[in-house]
Amino acid sequence: DGKVYVGYVACGKDMTLYAGNSTSDVPLIYSGDGTNEHGYILAVIDGNNVTKKVFHSVATDNSNILNTIDHMVFKNDKLYLVGTFNQALPFDINISYAGGCDTYATCLNATTLEKEWAVTSNFEEGDVNHSAENVSGVVIANDGAINIYGWVENTSDHSVTSALNHTVAAGTPTQMEKE
Description:
Oligomer: single chain
Strand order of the largest sheet: 6-7-8-9
Distance between the termini: 34 Å
Structural class: mainly beta
Number of helices: 0
């Protein structure tokens, strides 16, 4: 569609998004004592026109390395994001994670960046300090159904403890299924 879509997870203070010919402040909670917000920042760049959206979470002392946007796919005027999180899900802060972290999938309107839906694995992979889900691949069908692939690892020695294969139904899903 000729546009550039940008997405990243950030933690810090006094941040600025530079896109096209414009700049925009990105306000996030940053206490300096280890309690910080990990915001998911998205932008659609169409020439000099920039649409920015920050999805805020709650401030925690969790490590931000498990808060990711692993895949971003534009399809049928939708922007799909798949990754992991270990805080309240920024796309729906009423959803929390189980175990070390969870996989999420969310669908946004590609023009406005407004959330259409968000689901998570809610998979209890083990001890929060020693286990993590990792997303390595995603397939999105023409109807919007999603297959997510990855693994669970022991974060102490990075050994793989199990495979991940999640599916998200087409339409407006309310949950993610583990296969």
